[in-house]
Amino acid sequence: MKLELKGITKAFGSLVANDHIDLVVNPGEVHCLLGENGAGKSTLMNVLFGLYEPTEGSIEIDGKEVQFQGPGDAMAAGIGMVHQHFMLIPVFTVAENVALGNESTGFGGVMNLEATRKRIRDISDQYGFDVDPDAVVEDLPVGVQQRVEIIKALVRDAEILILDEPTAVLTPQETDELIEIMAQLKASGKGLVFISHKLREVKAVADTITVIRRGKVVGSAEPSASATELANLMVGRAVSLNLNKTPAVPGEKTFAVKDLSVLGEAGERLLDGVSFDVAKGEILAVAGVQGNGQTELAEAIMGLQKHVFGSVKLDGKELLGRSVRQVIDAGVGFVPEDRTVDGLVGDFSIAENLILNLYKDQEFASAGTLKRNVIKANAKSRVEEFDVRTQSAEAKVSTLSGGNQQKVVLAREFSRPLKLFIACQPTRGVDVGSIEFLHRRIVAERDNGTPVIIVSTELEEVAELADRIAVFHAGRIMGIVPGNTGREMLGLMMAGMTAEEAESQLSDGKEPGSHD
User: Fold this and answer.
1) Which of 108, 261, 329, 464 has its CA 20 to 30 A from that of 437?
2) Which band of pLDDT confidence, cut at 50, 70 and 90, is reported for residue 106?
3) HSE (CB half, 13 Å, CA atoms) of 47?
């Protein structure tokens, strides 16, 4: 089945998310849609899957124009979509999830699942999925849940499969397995649209690469193109992908976490007896698949979690039990996961956001009145130092791009002497050019003698920044390993092996101590 998008435009009011995009997907081809977060990739695919109606343009299948009123129409036409966040009901079995929306009932209106089970087994055998139709979804690893999503599409006879950022929740091993599955689907004649911002994966799977920037197609490339060439296309200017940081020179271990546990509202352990320390002048990266306790760790340190036990000491003084304000005043800088919700006040100006943690200081306020001229001068200095692209520091911070918003957060946190710096997903939704800048600033803070903790689900980022890596799984640390530990070993640890177990498994094959 051949798919063509012609002049697809999607506008939300004055915002044009997709601007006259042309795209062709041929049978037996992996067509990669490459672009930064916010470039318009997912919007385009939501148009294709019937979730959005295009403002302009047309969709053609085998030369005939089609119109979709919803996902049901797209699926009936042979298009399937595997969303970044799975559309599965955890307490249902695989067969029950696959049958949803495609139910057939027998005598008395009782759902007949046997035909669905047989279809799942047939597809599993054909593609080597190894999925049990009667397994409960919440008991399955994330990689297997993703296969269930693919099976859901194939059961409905999809000839075109859209995979939206499919590796975001996978370990390296699960990513490799997905790439093998994609190769099998391609060999069977399926057309695949692979949406990603990860250059390494795009180069590994693509037959054709289309690059989108700010809602427009800005070029196409062959898989043989270098990562630098692809990055330049994505950003629109030359960027460097190499950090070139000097080795760390760790000093005194001034930050220590001991037996730290966090309980959820239902009493479940979100963090389970975590212990580690960080020295001055080193970066400890916390790695793991999203949802394995990393967020709770950072929030516990910052005083944002309620049910916390154990010890968190900075310069020998206990932080647990202190308010967020007191933790900040103790010298902790913090970049939250979601800058728009927890890091910035969208309706405040850039200048105001730059003093959110300092507005009570005598430098910026006197007798309860803000010193507007001082705040303005501070903003001018920080905007220049951190290369924040804006017409005015008085503009609302919500008007900035994601990368520039993140620069404002870092500029604010680095505007005072720090005793500890924590950054969660520091470059999420940030363009390649801004990543280069933000990484350099984080390393500069390390070199300034500050203990640094980076929480990231991006292994490339972990590899770039880490002096040591703490790998999390199910709320526990599987081990703390050197910063140059290879993807394969990190992947095994992210899946639940201790460092010793992972090293033992790899000892008879590839050496685990270096990068791919």
Assistant:
1) 329
2) very low
3) 29
